[in-house]
Amino acid sequence: MTQAHAPEELPAWLLPGWEWLNQSLASGRVPAALLIQGPQGLGKTWLARVWAQKLLCQASVHALPCGVCPSCLLFLAGNHPDYGLVEPVEPGKVIGVDAIRQLIHKLSLKPQYNGYRVVVIEPAHLLNINAANALLKTLEEPSPYTLIILISAAPHKLPVTLLSRCQKLTLSRPDQQQALDWLTARGVSQNPHILLELAYGSPLTALGLDETGHLQKRDRIIRELLEIRAGTQDPVQLAGQWEPLFNEEVIEWIMTGVNQWIRLKLGLASPVQDTARLTSPSDSGIEAISIEALFGYWDFLIQTRQNIGHNMNTRLLVEALLIRWQALESG
Ligand SMILES: [Zn+2]
Q1: How far is the CA of 72 from the centre of ligand 1 (A)?
Q2: Residues at Cβ < 5 Å from ligand 1 ion
Q3: How far apart are the C-alpha atoms of 298 and 254, rounded to whole Å?
Q4: Residue 86 and residue 16: Cα distance in Å, rounded?
Q5: Does 145 have pLDDT greater than 70?
Q6: pTM of the entire structure?
Q7: From its phi and psi, is residue 187 left (phi > 0), alpha (psi between -120 and 50) or beta?
Q8: What is d(CA 34, CA 151) in angstroms, rounded to the nearest whole number?
Q9: How far is the C-alpha of 55 from the C-alpha of 271, rounded, in Å?
Q10: pLDDT of 49-73, one tens digit each?
Q11: How far, in Å, is the centroid of ligand 1 from the Cα of 331?
């Protein structure tokens, strides 16, 4: 048997969660409704997928799914009939009630493989209120061997009624060395320290930043923010250029910059000047911004990120973001 399809080994920081899931299986108490929560970029989805694959695996005597049985092959090809993923139609948009109705219909049919059925809903906090209510009914009357896994980096945005129905598995950031070892083993092309710094400690985010184009796009975003402060960019004009590429990721990039500037001001990080172009406050006009204003802007970014996809006018959202940035007070 080939090892070619064997699932990748889980990173060390996911192993406690993995253990917990396996113990639930060993003791016959697999959570019918599970919420995997924790910051972005830790591998919540990764863990959920390996868990789903293991439950569906037909040779599941191993710790990890075998990767070669018919069930695993279907799963890895994205065609397992007893596995479902519910996600926004477009990134950042809400998950509507139609998606949940389709799911409920699917779950009313017999499973194809006579084993578990697993549904992952991600990101669960983007369920709109009707979708959440429809899902709640399903969670209140669970079908046997049917597991619903909710994934969220912002579980506080989920209705309490839904939260109370779920068992929770909370992932937290790995220690720095664990993350650096993992990034190094993945063969990242940039300095793993810098990538991790930019990703504020989330290894998968750091890995994503290393992928072609991402760091360059982030550089552009950060550079143009600095140009606004320097008075060489007009926020309204720039908003027009940002509008087509604006999404949650862009806000994340801005947040990595603001986070870095806050930490530099607090003396919690040392300026790093190199390929990743982390900007030190002294050379960028950031020095003039008060720490309070930066914290305020951070909160504003979190708020803005929540508003993406909620039928907000993107152009107005970007304009507000850039005008506010220009107006941040000195101190
Ligand atoms: Zn298998």
Answers
A1: 4
A2: 57, 59, 65-66, 69, 72
A3: 9
A4: 26
A5: yes
A6: 0.74
A7: left
A8: 8
A9: 46
A10: 999 999 999 986 668 898 899 999 9
A11: 60
